[in-house]
Design brief:
This protein has 439 residues and is of the alpha+beta class. It is built from 16 helices and eleven strands. The protein is globular and about 60 Å long.
Length: 439
């Protein structure tokens, strides 16, 4: 909701490789490796198509932005492919296109994400060019000014976007004393104040070897992957590992309404969730599908849209951030229907807490969640991203084999117990933007 969307360009489809899974574990052999230069990474060899997918996450992201330079992580990410080393922005773009490579860079609350799709026959020069972008961004005057204007334009648009206003307000209420409560994209004032020395300092702080998590999938051997990884990180500072901290913050219960002259209102609602390492996370994940994560199969869609026609869509999701765990949802509807929509949502929240799911709901959720799991591995890019996820969450490579078993093992008793623990209707924190009636 609040993270920056990735862009892979018009040729992205050519860089997506289906692996044809009958079952996740049957098709994925994860190698947990360390390069000669001391970089840990995970590799899946897939030699059927001559393409290599790379995913890297540098932990930290916007939460490391200085208070007076909010938005600098996003600005750094936006400038990594705008010239590097001896190549200005145009020369860099030409070199990338000549290699038929695709790079993308994005920033979020918890990290800087790097994605690459490269032809195996041009792997060495493609990696060298990407390494230059990571270690030697130029921050030239013209692209810095252009990216700054783009960010300022986005900030101006967000200032009148009900979804953005609701999201930023909700997080600001939940985390008044933590970086999660600040606008990750910054403000007009903080972005305008960013200069080249600020960008250089932020680059050295945000892109470090010690906070990089790496996944590689495709037509590459372990020896080639070793060389690839060491080339990518050779020019980056070692840095200090990020401290493992928990954000102090509790979304305040109750409703805040922000008046905005729009024909529809948007509401963000939620409260504390469960961390991924919590023993009850898997049952909670199944419960979320039942309440609001299962699209048209969910209770909220049935009660809010199908039965009453109050809103086009309503959804919920588990949101385990690096330093906090949230359970959050959203609904958008006509101003006149917002009050009733929230009443129904609160009622379903309470009903699930008190009664839990039915046996039929539980079985349907487990069937869908286990059956859809292989779709997370239908491309090299998705697999590489999943390798990063498994490492960051310290789930282990075997999680791919055991995840569905853990979901299947959730009993009705488990689900009802966790529902009582997770769902707290009186703790719901709600932010509504628009001119809602009955709120």
């Amino acid at each position: 909701m609040m993270t920056i969307m990735r862009f892979f360009g018009p040729a992205a489809a050519a860089f997506t490789v289906a692996v044809g899974l009958a079952g996740p574990a049957a098709a994925i052999d994860i190698q947990e490796l360390e390069s000669p230069g001391g970089i840990d990474y995970w590799l899946v060899e897939e030699h059927s198509i001559p393409i290599v997918a790379l995913e890297v996450e540098f932990g930290g992201g916007a939460r490391l932005d200085p208070e007076d330079r909010l938005g600098i992580a996003e600005m750094v990410a936006g400038l990594l492919d705008e010239g590097a080393g001896e190549l200005d922005a145009l020369a860099f773009a030409k070199a990338r296109d000549d290699l038929s490579a695709r790079y993308s860079f994005s920033a979020g609350r918890d990290g800087i994400d790097v994605s690459a799709r490269m032809l195996s026959e041009k792997l060495e020069p493609s990696v060298a060019l990407l390494a230059s972008a990571l270690a030697e961004p130029r921050f030239d005057e013209e692209p810095v000014g252009r990216v700054r204007k783009q960010l300022l334009s986005n900030i101006a648009e967000r200032s009148t976007d009900p979804n953005a206003i609701a999201g930023e307000t909700w997080f600001g209420r939940a985390f008044p004393d933590h970086p999660y409560g600040r606008p990750a994209s910054g403000t007009a004032e903080t972005v305008a104040a960013i200069d080249v020395p600020d960008l250089e300092a932020a680059h050295d702080r945000l892109l470090t070897r010690s906070n990089a998590t790496v996944g590689i999938v495709g037509d590459v051997t372990p020896a080639e992957a070793d060389a690839m990884v060491d080339t990518l990180f050779a020019g980056l500072p070692e840095g200090e590992p990020l401290a493992e901290e928990t954000a102090e913050g509790t979304p305040p219960p109750g409703v805040e309404v922000i008046e905005l002259a729009k024909p529809q209102s948007v509401a963000i609602f939620g409260h504390k969730g469960l961390a991924r390492e919590d023993d009850d996370f898997i049952p909670a994940y199944v419960l979320n599908y039942i309440l609001g994560g299962g699209g048209f199969e969910s209770r909220l869609m049935e009660e809010v849209r199908e039965k009453r026609g109050l809103a086009y869509s309503v959804s919920t999701s588990m949101l385990p951030l690096d330093q906090a765990a949230l359970y959050i949802g959203s609904v958008s509807t006509a101003n006149a229907r917002m009050g009733e929509s929230l009443d129904v949502i609160r009622g379903e929240w309470k009903r699930l807490a008190e009664e839990g799911p039915t046996a039929e709901e539980l079985e349907a959720a487990k069937k869908y969640l286990t059956g859809a799991f292989p779709l997370r591995f239908d491309s090299n890019a998705k697999i590489a991203g999943y390798l990063v996820f498994l490492q960051k969450e310290e789930l282990g490579a075997g999680y791919i084999d055991t995840r569905n078993d853990m979901i299947e093992a959730v009993t009705l008793e488990d689900a009802r117990r966790v529902a009582r623990r997770l769902y707290a209707p009186d703790a719901l924190s709600i932010v509504v933007v628009g001119q809602p009636e009955g709120v």
